[in-house]
Amino acid sequence: MTLVDKIGTVTAVIVFVLLAIAYFYSFRPKNKQQFEDLRNFVNDDDER
Fold it and tell me: Is the pLDDT of residue 33 over 90?
């Protein structure tokens, strides 16, 4: 295995782990209300 192969493997594993964490974080029932509140934040007419 060359250095480039090792870097690619480590990068792929890190990306997979980060995506798995994001998936489980976003589908936790505890976070449902937070995501529901942010659903239409683009369409809010409130000036911030």
Answer: no
State pTM to two decimals: 0.64
Q: Report how far apart, in Å, the C-alpha atoms of 10 and of each of 2, 15, 17, 27, 35 are.
A: 13, 9, 11, 26, 31
Handedness of CA 15, 20, 21, 27 (dihedral sign): positive
Kindly indicate the confidence band of residue 36, based on its pLDDT and cuts at 50, 70 and 90. confident
Residue spans of alpha helices (H) in 1-48: 3-26, 32-37
Which of 48, 46, 26 lies closest to 35 in space, CA to CA?
26
Residue with tokens 């997979």: 16
